[in-house]
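fold-stage: in
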Amino acid sequence: MKKHLMEGFMDKSQLAAKVKEACYLTGNFILSSGKRSNYYLDKYRFSTHPELLGAVAEEIAKRVPPGVNRLAGPELGAVPIAAAVSLKTGIPYVIVKKDQKDYGTKRPIEGILEQGDHVFLIEDIITTATQCIRAAKRLVSEGAVVTKIIGVIDRQEGGAENIAAAGFDYEPLFTKEELGI
């Protein structure tokens, strides 16, 4: 029988070590912000691993603010995380599309989003937060109230400041510093 990664109880610092072990890659990378980096945090290496995804979702679920009645995950990377947190909390989620499609429903948000819904936006990796802020603004334009944004990992490259400047409350689950990068 295959040994599971997450056997037994794990605290946040142990989870941080496991997340780093799974997703931290070194090399020469171009980030979505266009910046070059000598390291990359590959979210798919933790978000596609059931035990790690479950443990990350459990930590995020503890941080859902009171009064939230909808979760949101920008496509593509944050969707499995939002789905996992939804399963942990019982709170439905929506998917925020990067681009509105010219076919089907043509909606910028997939799932059910009601006017006035209080949304907890879940993002995977925060660098400059451009995509995250765009998703939050899209939710607001569709009638939602973005109560808070959480990023699984904050690279500490201006994202937190940009989110605050855009008028949103933000909390990272882990920072680059906490991961020892």
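fold-stage: in (second)
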Amino acid sequence: MATLSHELDWLFIPAMRLEKSKAELSSYNLRVANLKSAFPNGKIVYWEASRENYLCDVAYLMDDKQLTFVFINPYTAEIQGRANLPFQRFYRD
């Protein structure tokens, strides 16, 4: 199951999905700025760049003593959503 965890996340967490794009990647600084704007009290503890062209970047954010996984579109730098425990993290833990 762990080997399919990203695919399960894609299936059950729509905010993690990307449309295939031939656009240029947005700057990392813009993605971080948008994340900090959306979660001003959050602290980035880890950043996982998308490994596949159908998945968002995932920022592991400590916000109010709660680990939150935030999905960021690497092309538009838009925050697409968040989850408290995606399949990928559940199976790895």
